[in-house]
Design brief:
It contains three helices and nine strands. The chain is of the alpha+beta class. It is globular and about 35 Å long.
Amino acid sequence: MTTITAWIATHSDGTTCTVATTTTDCPHNHTYTAPAEAPGTKGLLITTAGELAIAAFGELEDYQRAVGGDIEIVSLDNRHDLIVNEEGLIHRLPLNYLASAVARRPLVGDVVLIGVDNTSGDFVDVDVDDTMIDIARRILGA
């Protein structure tokens, strides 16, 4: 999995900033390295720590690495699915508060929000806009 952009941004000095997404937003006056475009379907990784990152997924194994095991699909609506660890409860993975709020049901472990083409059923790039990010930040209290 290759992260192409992240709201937990990496500064040019290698540190991360949990309060800014651009150079102008950073209270530490760090500069950000430009993210590289990665091949594959773009999804939103939602970690149990509340980190959000857009990542590219080329194969099944990429999704499995992101959630830490075999995958299970949780349907959200006719345009989005969540990909979760199929055995997350068995392995007692921690509750994912943000993903649970999005799904309106308890979900554990790291989760991937992915777009779905209703006609083919294929995964497509998730459409993440500033409104979705603002909602996520409010839920997380960030």
